[in-house]
Design a protein that fits this description.
By secondary structure, the protein is of the alpha/beta class. About 40% of the residues lie in helices and about 20% in strands. The strands form two sheets. It has a seven-stranded mixed sheet, with helices on one face. A six-stranded parallel sheet has the order 3-2-1-4-5-6, with helices on both faces. It is globular and about 55 Å long. The structure holds nicotinamide-adenine-dinucleotide. The site of nicotinamide-adenine-dinucleotide has 26 residues, from α1.
């Protein structure tokens, strides 16, 4: 039996709590969270208390001084991913890095290089890659049984506003990154082809009422993506959607169609006679829609630490970030943008420059 893995959890916010719970409550036979890192002491201590984690640190550097780990799970705001991933990888540790991988492609390349040099595994937090229905659809598409993908329609609607940093394109690349990068990863995975161009259009329906004042904020998005294979895709996003968390994909192929996801767990469809109302249960959050996938994702991390192949890694993370950047440029410029425009070594997203300067 392999020795229990020691995991350092970096970030004690929404996702840090979710992954800590998966490891401590479901995977305790394989691993333990042995340190929690968060500059917000109160948040870190509360999480540590809830799951009996003894070491609480305010920085990853402090955690590395105080303990020995087998892997690091990074669940912090996107603008911190690059520096934290480089620190963890330089310490020779396996890393699970939440999506989106980083703020731009230059940062993604540096993280990729650091993982290669360290000879450790880097897994990206696209949990749909670990969801049974999504995996079944990908395998069906790969089998060729229903032909080649012609059009892929993917949507994600988030229930409520994410944390403030995630609403601001300067610190997160906005909703396309924070909500819809899951779709960008899925369409590329299902198309099994490289994306060529993206054209995104956005609207802001609820921002003013919810007190969101960040420049370029949008809560509604529609993007079209073309692939080298000739497949077309659409990505739709709404956040806050208020009615629940909604993640669905439909792929029409040359020989059939496959659909993944539903608005709720199913099993109950109410059609009261007389008023023609149709109501059904909906998922409240990504936490319940993908509850099993999040546990599978942490289990997969433990497996890659034992030498299993990485199922969603640096190349996938970089591809999604490239689409996020091209899509954001498309929104700002009001034109279709080729992915190649944002992947050159000199491309600096103009909307990130001021925030990066303020942080340095
Ligand atoms: N896979 C998913 O389904 C999913 C869902 C939501 C968010 N996310 C991603 O997870 C990441 C975190 O999102 P969240 O919603 O948990 O954010 P959050 O704001 O709830 O939590 C982030 C935490 O990180 C802490 N933090 C900030 N800088 C830090 C640092 N240098 N070291 C350690 N901790 C630091 C903050 O104090 C905060 O407690 C983001 O990249 C986001 O895109 C993924």
């Amino acid at each position: 039996m392999s020795v229990s893995k020691r995991i350092c959890m970096v970030g004690a916010g929404r996702v840090g709590r979710l992954h800590t719970r998966s490891i401590m409550e479901r995977l305790g036979h394989r691993a333990r969270v042995t340190a929690i890192v968060d500059p917000s002491r109160e948040v870190a201590e509360e999480l540590a208390r809830d799951y009996g984690v003894e070491v609480v640190c305010s920085s990853l550097e402090e955690a590395l001084e105080r303990g020995v780990y087998d892997g690091v799970v990074i669940t912090t705001p996107t603008f911190t991913h690059h520096a934290l991933a480089l620190t963890a990888l330089a310490a020779g540790l396996h890393v699970h890095l939440e999506k989106p991988m980083a703020m731009n492609v230059v940062e993604c390349r540096e993280i990729t290089g650091a993982a290669e040099r360290a000879g450790v595994a880097l897994q990206l937090g696209y949990m749909r890659r670990f969801d049974r229905n999504f995996v079944d659809a990908a395998e069906l598409l790969r089998s060729g049984e229903i032909g080649d993908p012609m059009i892929i329609k993917s949507l994600t609607h988030g229930p409520g506003l994410p944390p403030a940093w995630a609403n601001d394109i300067r610190t997160s690349n906005g909703m396309l990154a924070e909500v819809n990068s899951h779709d960008l990863d899925t369409i590329s995975w299902f198309a099994a082809s490289e994306p060529v161009e993206i054209h995104a259009t956005v609207a802001n329906h609820k921002g003013a009422d919810r007190g969101v004042t960040s420049e370029h904020f949008y809560d509604t998005l529609l993007a079209t993506v073309t692939f080298e294979s000739g497949a077309l895709a659409s990505v739709a996003g709404v956040c806050p959607a208020d009615y629940g968390y909604d993640a669905r994909v439909e792929v029409t192929c040359t020989g059939g169609m496959v659909q993944v996801g539903d608005t709720g767990p199913g099993g109950l469809s109410v059609l009261p006679a007389g008023n023609h109302q149709h109501s059904r249960p909906v998922f409240r959050s990504w936490r319940d829609r993908f509850a099993d996938a999040y546990v599978e994702e942490m289990l997969a991390l433990l497996d890659v630490m034992d030498g299993a192949p990485v199922r969603v890694g640096a190349a996938d993370g970089t591809r999604a970030v490239a689409l996020v950047l091209a899509g954001t440029l498309s929104i700002l410029d009001g034109r279709p943008v080729r992915v190649a425009e944002v992947t050159g070594p000199d491309f600096v997203p103009s909307w990130q420059a001021a925030a990066a300067e303020a942080r340095s």
